[in-house]
Amino acid sequence: MPDPISWAFSWPYLLAAAVGGYLLGSIPFGLVLTRLAGLGDVRRIGSGNIGATNVLRTGNRSLAAATLFLDGGKGAVAFLVAGLWGPDMALTAGLAAVVGHLFPVWLRFKGGKGVATTIGTLLAAAWPLGLAVCALWLLIAGVTRYSSLAALLSLAASPLLALWISGDQQLAEFAAILALLVWLRHLENIGRLLRGKESKIGQRTEPR
Question: What is the value of pTM for the model shown?
């Protein structure tokens, strides 16, 4: 494994990690997979999102599962590959991957909600933390049937979970930044939740 790059010469490498992470994160797997499967543009149904929850509204569970795996995987891969050159590189690439998913240049910066990519990144950063967030998401989603609410609450808890599980302040701050990005991307969902208009998991909707 290469030695961590010193801060004196790190900025070009950090920039490379950021660009690489962003480009990987910006791959819209939900959109690509639904089009390859002949299901059209997933942005024209349900929430208009490109993530796994909206892909599930096509009725194709295997495609939704593949989207979930690939969206989570791109965050994990960005973090782990960049981590070969040091923790700062890993954090930079992981954050950039989430930003890339949220604001992909290929889709005029209108991407997904970042939940799977964020959880994938947290799994790579500290797998006990990632598993705890996954378990909390599953619990809340199972009780409420609201994917957005489960994401908001589980990620809001992630900094506290990071401190409780590892005591790592930097990891907690990283989790907090990712959670903030996801919350900002969910403002419309929060509004619908408050109005009782949010769609539930598996609820099929007509094309827009």
Answer: 0.89
Q: Are 173 and 198 in contact (CB under 8 A)?
A: no
For every one of its 208 residues, what pLDDT tens digit does the chain have, with 9 covering 90 and above?
Answer: 345 545 445 888 899 999 999 999 999 999 999 999 888 888 888 777 888 888 888 888 999 999 999 999 999 999 999 999 899 999 999 999 999 999 999 998 989 999 999 999 999 999 999 999 999 999 999 999 998 999 999 999 999 999 999 999 999 999 999 999 999 999 999 999 999 888 887 665 555 4
For residue 75, what are the contacts with CB-CB under 8 A and spacing of at least 6? 25, 94, 97, 98, 101, 116, 117, 118, 119, 120, 121, 124
Residue with tokens 């495609």: 63
For 2, phi and psi rounded to 5 degrees? -60, 150
Q: Can you tell me whether residue 51 is helix, strand or coil?
A: coil
Looking up tokens 């910066």 gives 109
Nearest to 154, CA basis, from 174, 130, 171, 172: 130
Phi, psi at residue 151, to the nearest 5°?
Answer: -65, -45
